Amino acid sequence: MKAQPFKTLSGIAAPLEQDNIDTDIIFPARFLLITAREGLGRYAFHDRRFETDGQENPDFILNQNPFREAPILLAGANLGSGSSREQAVWALLGFGVRAVIAPSFGEIFQANCLRNGILPITLPDETVRKLLGRAKDGLNLTIDLESQTIAVEDDVRFDFDIAPERKLALINGWDETAQILNQRVNDISAFEARQRQDQPWLYEREMTP
Q: Of 146, 57, 65, 152, nearest to 101 (Cα)?
């Protein structure tokens, strides 16, 4: 599925002041039987957002204004640890999240974010802690992927790293297939030319009038 291109993102950052928020917290395992990708946003952080009787938990940050529709999440270290379930990322996307900032991430979760159009940004632990403290009172951030910077309201800027191929894929909204086709087009054409020469019978249908 083609992701929405990511170039710049401005919005309020929701502070999740906890380390080791795993994928089961983001998307509880009992919902894994749901096969449709659409609509998974309703299950994001389900057991934190809702009480056992189905009522909203007013103490959870994402149930509080102005964080209900925050496009950016700030979290502690090791965000997205645990299982490899891609539904955790799909649920975040469905909830409206396009960027997550933390000192570190679960490796597979980070890769799933990049594959699905969410930008995972790693910043030093001290920097994230300061941002978390400020975000409690509401903090707007502007993320510019092309310049690889995060601008805070008072014009403080932070740089972040991202692999060039992942950056290009996010900016263009490419999934993994599109990334291969667009970045390896010359290699693919060269391979096809060699194959046509060495194994012409594979292309006989194309040559049949």
A: 152
Element (H, E) at 179: helix 176-183
For residue range 158-208, list pLDDT tens digits in order.
999 999 999 999 999 886 655 555 656 666 667 666 777 777 777 766 555
Q: Where are the beta strands (DSSP E) in the chain?
A: 8-16, 72-75, 99-102, 119-122, 140-144, 149-152, 157-159
Residues 196, 66: Cα–Cα separation, whole Å:
59
Question: What is this structure's pTM?
Answer: 0.84
Kindly state the DSSP code that residue 43 receives in the 8-state scheme. Answer: G
Using the 8-state DSSP alphabet, how is residue 4 labeled?
A: P
Contact present, 26 and 92 (Cβ < 8 Å): yes
Q: Which of 112, 61, 116 is nearest to 93 (CA)?
A: 116
CA distance linking residue 166 with residue 157, whole number of Å: 22
Q: How, if at all, do strands 8-16 and 157-159 pair?
A: unpaired
d(CA 209, CA 193) in angstroms, rounded, equals 21
Query: Cis peptide before 120, with omega less than 30 degrees from 0?
Result: no
Which residue in the block uniquely carries the two structure tokens 């096809």? 192
